[in-house]
Specification:
single chain, alpha+beta, Glucose Permease (Domain IIA), 2 helices
C-alpha cells in the first residue's frame, strides 16, 4: 500500500515537472519571437494609438472646418455689409453733392424771375394806384368848396345842435351844404377814391384818401363819375347832388361833407379857402 502511494507521488511530481518544462519552453519561445520582431508590437501599439487618435483628429478637423467655414461666412457677410454701406454712403454723398448743384443752377433763374415779376407788379401798382404818400394834404393845406351853397348844419362835436327832420339835438361830425338836386359836386382836394358805399343817413357816399392821414367824405350823391382806386384832381366833378334821405327831408337837398384826420372828425371849415 505504501509503495502504491509512493509511486503515485513520483508520477505526480514527474507530471508537474513536465508541465513546468513545457510552460518554460513556451515562455522562452515567446520571448525570442518578441525579440526577433520588436517593431510588430510597436506597430500594433502605434496602430492602436492611431486608431484612438483618428476619431479625435477627425473631430478636431471637423471642428476646424466648421470654424473656418463660419469665419469665411462672417467675413463674407461683413464684406457684403461693408460694400453695401459704402455704396449707400456713396449714393448719399452723391445726392448731397448734386442737390446744392441743382439749387445753385435753379436759384438764380427763380430769383431773377421773382425779382422781375415783383418789379413788374410794383411798376403796375405805381402806374395804376399812386401811393398815399404822394398826396400832399397837410394841416396847412386848403380845401375848395365842393358845391356852391350855404351851410345849413355846422360841424359841432363840442355841443349838440338841433336837427329839424329828427326833431332832436345831437352832435354833428360834418357840415351840410344846401344845394339843388343835380348840382355838380367837385373834388375838394387831390386824392384817391377808397370807397363808394350806400348809407341810410347820407345815401350814396364817397370816401377819398387825401394823404397824411386825412380823408374826405361826400354824402347825398348820385351819378358818381369816378370809381374806387381812381386818383382825382382837385376841382374835378365826382358826381351830383341827390334827393335828400329821410334824415334830411326838412333841411332839403344838400351835400354832406366830412373831413377826418386819423379816423377822427375835424372841422372842415378850418381848411376851406
Amino acid at each position: 500500500m505504501r509503495r502504491n502511494q509512493k509511486g503515485f507521488l513520483i508520477v505526480l511530481c514527474l507530471c508537474m515537472l513536465s508541465v513546468s518544462g513545457i510552460f518554460g519552453v513556451y515562455q522562452y519561445r515567446k520571448g525570442q519571437n518578441q525579440e526577433a520582431d520588436p517593431g510588430a508590437s510597436g506597430q500594433s501599439a502605434q496602430a492602436d494609438e492611431t486608431q484612438e487618435a483618428e476619431p479625435e483628429k477627425e473631430a478636431a478637423n471637423s471642428e476646424g472646418t466648421v470654424a473656418k467655414a463660419d469665419t469665411e461666412e462672417n467675413q463674407t457677410e461683413a464684406k457684403i455689409e461693408t460694400e453695401e454701406d459704402i455704396y449707400e454712403i456713396g449714393e448719399a454723398e452723391l445726392a448731397q453733392a448734386e442737390e446744392p448743384a441743382e439749387q445753385t443752377d435753379e436759384e438764380p433763374e427763380d430769383t431773377s424771375a421773382a425779382e422781375e415779376e415783383e418789379t413788374e407788379e410794383d411798376t403796375e401798382e405805381e402806374a395804376e394806384v399812386p401811393a398815399a404818400e404822394q398826396f400832399a394834404f397837410a394841416e396847412d393845406s386848403r380845401l375848395i368848396w365842393p358845391v356852391d351853397g350855404d351851410v345849413i348844419l355846422n360841424y359841432s362835436m363840442d355841443k349838440s345842435i338841433y336837427f329839424s327832420t329828427l326833431n332832436q339835438y345831437k352832435y354833428h361830425p360834418a357840415i351840410v351844404i344846401s344845394a339843388d338836386v343835380g348840382s355838380e359836386v367837385r373834388c375838394a382836394a387831390r386824392g384817391r377814391v377808397t370807397g363808394i358805399t350806400v348809407n341810410e343817413e347820407t345815401g350814396t357816399t364817397l370816401t377819398m384818401d387825401l394823404g397824411s392821414g386825412y380823408q374826405a367824405v361826400y354824402g347825398q350823391l348820385k351819378e358818381v363819375s369816378v370809381e374806387e382806386g381812381d386818383t382825382v384832381e382837385s376841382g374835378t366833378v365826382i358826381g351830383y347832388v341827390s334827393e335828400p334821405t329821410k334824415y334830411y327831408t326838412l333841411e332839403g337837398s344838400n351835400l354832406y361833407f366830412q373831413l377826418l384826420k386819423d379816423q377822427e372828425p375835424v372841422n372842415p371849415m378850418n381848411y376851406m379857402e
